[in-house]
Specification:
alpha+beta, six-stranded mixed sheet, 21% helix, globular
Amino acid sequence: MKFRSPFGEAELTDERLTHIIRFHPEVRQYQKTISQTLSDPELIRRSKFDEKVYILYRTITLKKYLAVVLKTNRRNFVLTTYLTDKIQHLP
């Protein structure tokens, strides 16, 4: 599946979606929110570990966020998605 993102077109492959559902089953109910987070994130942070990876956030509840991890390259693609109660702070 391909989505708009602030970094251009982003892809969520079937393999990555399978990984997300397997390792983060709580995200299954937020599959529609993944596309919203990619196209219109509330907040974006750069990964501390890889300068080509960004974490896009969208609020789910008062203290819960959906985080979509996007690798930016010649082909932008989703690495994983998870729920968190903490936003990564800038170094």
